[in-house]
């Protein structure tokens, strides 16, 4: 069985300050991990993915995430938030068998000017 | 590039009515998926298809049906709408299995309310 827990349902930051979105996972196998972003009234868009190569993964729009096996975490960060980062973010874990992706509950990010 | 196109964007149904959510993709992707998104719950897989003529149940298939007669189209059918089916529905596609490291492409969603 696999599961994903996003530790914060809402995160509020000021423009220009760092963003940290926390994600913990459990998986019986070596997982693939993803972060997706959903802007209002849009479909989800892939930010980045981890697939057992480098543990620090760089994505689009200045985001990056670090895979820490010992902590079963895959936290998403960005050094400086922009107003356009206001969106909902989903951490996703997958296992190869069964075409199964498991989504976290999402973290809604508010960016204040 | 149209990508994944879903129609309609919004719909209100009465209890017991039926409807079909349409999904089409123009990327020649083998895999297609239907998810529902409930507040604070992430996305749940309803049905998926690995190619034309092949469909399989996901986590929450009850109350829904699908078909995949062509590579491009993957409609989702609600036969007897219930209030529990009020949700936002997303169609997605990928060239190969999304459960490996494959990127999913999502449509913009259908907001469905059953009253």
Q: State the shape of chain A.
A: globular
Give me the secondary-structure category of chain B.
mainly beta
Largest interface: A-B, 26 and 25 residues
- Provide a count of the helices of chain B: 0
Task: Assess the beta-strand content of chain B as a share of residues.
Answer: over 45%
Mean pLDDT of chain A: 90
The number of strands of chain B is 11
H/E element order of chain B? EEEEEEEEEEE
Oligomer: heterodimer
Radius of gyration of chain B: 13 Å
Strand content of chain A: over 45%
The whole-number mean of residue pLDDT values of chain B reads: 91
Helix content of chain B: under 10%
Number of helices of chain A: 0
Low-confidence stretches of chain A: none
The proportion of residues forming helix of chain A, as a percent range, comes to: under 10%
- Poorly predicted ranges of chain B: none
Distance between the termini of chain A: 41 Å
């Amino acid at each position: 069985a696999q599961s994903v827990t996003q530790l914060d349902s809402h995160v509020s930051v000021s423009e220009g300050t760092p963003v940290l979105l926390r994600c913990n996972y459990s998986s019986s196998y070596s997982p693939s991990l993803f972060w997706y972003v959903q802007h209002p009234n849009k479909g989800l868009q892939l930010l980045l993915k981890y697939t057992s190569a480098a543990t620090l993964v760089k994505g689009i729009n200045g985001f990056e995430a670090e895979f820490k096996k010992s902590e079963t975490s895959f936290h998403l960060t960005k050094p400086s938030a922009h107003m356009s980062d206001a969106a909902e973010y989903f951490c996703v874990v997958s296992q190869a068998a069964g075409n199964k992706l498991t989504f976290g509950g999402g973290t809604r990010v508010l960016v204040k000017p | 590039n149209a990508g994944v196109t879903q129609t309609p964007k919004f719909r209100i149904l009465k209890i017991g009515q039926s409807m079909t959510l349409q999904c089409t993709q123009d990327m020649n992707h083998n895999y297609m998926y239907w998810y529902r998104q409930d507040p604070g719950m992430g996305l749940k897989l309803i049905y998926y298809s690995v190619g034309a003529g092949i469909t399989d149940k996901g986590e929450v298939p009850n109350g829904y049906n699908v078909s995949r007669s062509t590579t491009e189209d993957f409609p989702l059918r609600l036969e007897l709408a219930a209030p529990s089916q009020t949700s936002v529905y997303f169609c997605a596609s990928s060239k190969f299995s999304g459960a490996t490291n494959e990127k999913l492409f999502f449509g913009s969603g259908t907001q469905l309310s059953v009253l």
